[in-house]
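--- STAGE predict ---
source: upstream dedup step, 1 unique chain passed
mode: sequence only
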Amino acid sequence: MKIKVLLFFVVGITAVAFNAKIILTKLQVTNKQEVVAKPNFTKKEQKKTATNTTLSMNPQQDIVGTWLMENHPNSKWVFTNDNKHYTYVDNVLQWSYSYEFVDYLPNGNPIPTGEFLIKFTDLDDGDVSYDWVYDVSPNAGSYLTLISEDTGRMGIFIKQ
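--- STAGE serialize ---
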């Protein structure tokens, strides 16, 4: 039973990664608490991604709006101009965060130029998490791709 569940999990991640046109390399562990997932594009995939999506040069503005999770449209993420983020499931508020784009990793090291990292702070308990931004565009129907710094989980969202 455990083997079947594990295989389903691996296939599910592969399908999500393929949909996002992102191939993740192995997770790079820099210390026991920090796990970083990095994209690894082939030249063909870079060209295809550049023609199929808009990679934003200003994600701080482009992320503002309402986003539905691609495979779970009942999950809605709202980013506001005043740096607040709200997560709704079935139109019921589940979590509230403040967010900011940062230029450093949780351990204080700088992130590479051209990469974007969001720091989320839970408004209820102050817990902090980070997500890498790999695709965002201001246009309705465009995609937002986030990868959790902590878990490596990927979320793909469609702008409303």
